[in-house]
Amino acid sequence: MKYLHANGLKLLLMSCIGLAASVCLFSLPIKKVSAESGISNRDLLTQDERQWLSQHPVIRVMNEPDYAPYDFTRNGKAEGYSIEYVQLLADKLSVKIEFVQADFSDLIQMAK
Q: In angstroms, rounded to a whole number, what is the distance separating the alpha carbons of residues 23 and 27?
């Protein structure tokens, strides 16, 4: 039962994170972003958000070693659906992501 509870909590947390990221992404104002339009991805952010990103050019993101296919490590490299999603957002925002490998229990401790 303890195993099911831990995995259920893990699945709930991952689902909430995915939902929150999706809501944030899809709540952005829709603008045509292209070289021809003259609008950059950073134009979608507020001045405060751009300032925060300029002060934090590298963002650390936790990478779980064994939560395939969403988040896992293969040959020392972060992989999975959520890793690709985070990297896509980082590319669009012109920031660098540093993946920090930890398991779920370590994540809970880091969040406290």
A: 6
Residue 77 has pLDDT above 90, yes or no: yes
CA–CA dist 36, 3 (Å, integer): 53
Among the listed residues 98, 100, 104, the one whose alpha carbon sits nearest the alpha carbon of residue 67:
104
Helix axes 104-111, 2-26, angle to 10 degrees: 60
Q: Measure the CA–CA gap between 7 and 13, rounded to whole angstroms.
A: 10
HSE-CB of 42 using CA atoms within 13 angstroms: 11
- Cis ω for the linkage preceding 65 (within 30 of 0): no
Which helix (DSSP H) or strand (DSSP E) does residue 6 occupy?
A: helix 2-26
- Decide: pTM greater than 0.70: no
**Cα separation of 99 and 93, whole Å?**
17
**Dist. CA 103–CA 63, nearest whole Å:** 8
